[in-house]
Structures are given as C-alpha cells and as structure tokens.
Amino acid sequence: MKKYYITFVLSICALLTFSQGYEFGIVQVSGYNFKIVAIPNFNSAGNTNISDVGFTLMMPAGSADITNQSGLFGGRNWDVTQFDAATLSGLGGDGTEDGFLFNLPPGATLLAHTNGQQIDLVSFDVTNTPISGLLRFLSNAEAIATGAGGALDSFYNSNIDATTTQNYFFGIASGMGSFDFSLLGIHDANFGLYHVTVYPNPTKGILFLGGDVSKLKTVEIYSMTGQRVMEVKGDFREINIETLQSAIYFLKLNAADSAGTIKIVKE
Predict the structure, then answer these.
(1) Residue 187 neighbours by CB under 8 Å, 6+ apart
(2) Residue 32: helix, strand or coil by DSSP?
(3) How many C-beta neighbours within 10 Å does residue 34 have?
(4) At residue 161, what are phi and psi to the nearest 5 degrees?
(5) Which of 56, 90, 100, 119 has the most CB atoms around its CB within 10 Å?
(6) How many CA atoms lie within 13 A of 41 on its CB side?
(7) pLDDT of residue 18
(8) Cα→Cα distances 187→103, 198, 217, 221, 263, Å
(9) Which of 212, 218, 220, 210 lies closest to 264 in space, CA to CA?
(10) DSSP summary character for residue 203
(11) Separation between Cα atoms, residue 32 and residue 171, nearest integer Å
C-alpha cells in the first residue's frame, strides 16, 4: 500500500510541475521591428533558471530576411538559421514560406516574473519590407516540424523549482501567433482608373494620400465591426485620425464612379 501511495504522490507532483509553463507570442514594436515574448502562467520569485529556448518563425518565401537579433534578457545572444522554401519542401512544406530557426544556446539566467507577464526574449528586424503574407510561428504539430524530427520545434528549457531542467513550452499565446505584413508599409489602392497611395501604415495619427487624390469625392473610415467612425471631405492629401482609438480600420476611398478600400492601423 505504501508503494502505491508513493507512486500516487509522484504522479500528482508531475502533474503539478507540468501545469506550469510559458506561451510564446509575436509583438510588433514599430514598423518592421518585432520581438518575441514568453508569457508564464505562474508567479516566480526568481528561482526559474533559464537554460535554452528555441522556436521557428515562418515568412513568405523571397528576399525578406531577419537581422539585428538582440537578446533581451541576461545579455545572452541568440542564433538564427534560415531554411529556404525549397529546403522546407523536402520536409513537408508547400514551397511558399522560408523558415528562421531561433535558438538561445544553453546557459544560465535566473528570472523572476508574475503570472501573465510578457517576458521579452529577443528582438529583430525584418528586411526588404514585405507587404503581404504572415510572420508566424511554426507549430510543433505541422508537417515541416515533424518532418524535421523536432529540430525546428518550439521549446523553453528551464529549471523552475530547483530540481531538474525540463521543457516548459506551453504553446502559442492566443492572438499572438502571427503578424500580417499587409498592415505595414505604403499601400496602393487601385480602383477603376484610379491609383492612390496611403502612408505611413501603421500610423500614430496622420495619414498621407498620394496619387489620384483629385479624383476622390469623400474618404470614409470604418471600424472592424462596420461602423463608420469618420468621413473626410475636401483636401484628402493629409488625414488626421489622432482622435481614433488604437485599432484596425478600413479606409474607403470614394470617387465619382468607383471606390476602393485599404486596411489601416492606428497605433
């Protein structure tokens, strides 16, 4: 009976241990500068000893690259290895995305944190300004990850209770698994015979319009729920949206015989 009791206690301890962990998320800092964060689901007074961490980010295949990666805790440097779409096709990919494997080599960093806190892991820039497609985490369950035999998996190896180092990766945080590049850069709207550019996007308050703005009759701004929150008449070359809350909106450009819509972000 004693033997069964010990086994039961050990099983409960194991469940309690693995009920703690860290989710990963992508955060846009500004423009094409991003950071990756880890979000714990428990409090720690400083006994979490971080060993090594890794994950793979996917981007549209092409010239876009990841540069200027900088470790954001413990002063530890990260390694980044690129795998092009052709290479990933041999692992189960569809040939449309390149992969970037991030790895924090084994070391030691003691970290205190609170439940739900965003812990900055690494920052980086995306070059060659892609304006479509996603920056996203590769899931450990995807064909590419399984085809790579776990070499591209996300993990968070830590000793959180002064016993042994284990993988406490808990998945991707809800709503933080990807970033849509279509929200960035100078955007073109082609509608009918007209062509209008809108920049910067995202914006902190001022939008500039170029191109065939003389053809416009009105410019309307709609929320994600379809509510019109602003209408502009007259001079469309500069539109002030400082009074709008930080969110995603749709800029509707109305000419006499056609209309076009561009997604914009108010920071």
Answers:
(1) 131, 197, 198, 199, 201, 262, 263, 264
(2) coil
(3) 19
(4) -135, 25
(5) 56
(6) 15
(7) 56
(8) 34, 5, 20, 16, 9
(9) 220
(10) B
(11) 24
Burial class of residue 45, CB neighbours in 10 A (0-12, 13-18, 19+): exposed
Give residues with Cβ within 8 angstroms of 178, minimum separation 6.
26, 134, 135, 136, 137
| DSSP 8-state code for residue 43 | -
Mean pLDDT for all residues in the chain = 88
Contact in structure between 43 and 114 (CB atoms under 8 Å): yes
Model confidence pLDDT, tens digit, residues 222-258: 988 788 999 998 888 999 999 999 998 999 999 888 8
Torsion of CA 139, 142, 144, 147, to 10 degrees: 120
- pLDDT higher than threshold 80 for residue 14: no
Query: Is residue 19 exposed (0-12), middle (13-18) or buried (19+ Cβ within 10 Å)?
Result: exposed
Tokens of 78: 């990260």
CB 129 within 8 A of CB 182: no
Q: Residue 191 has which token pair?
A: 């509608």
CA distances to 47, 250, 258 from 215, in Å: 64, 19, 10
**Residues 145 and 55 sit within 8 Å (Cβ to Cβ):** no
3-class secondary-structure state, position 161: coil
C-alpha distances out from residue 196 to 73, 180, 201, Å: 43, 21, 14
Cα 198 to Cα 238: distance, rounded to the nearest angstrom: 10
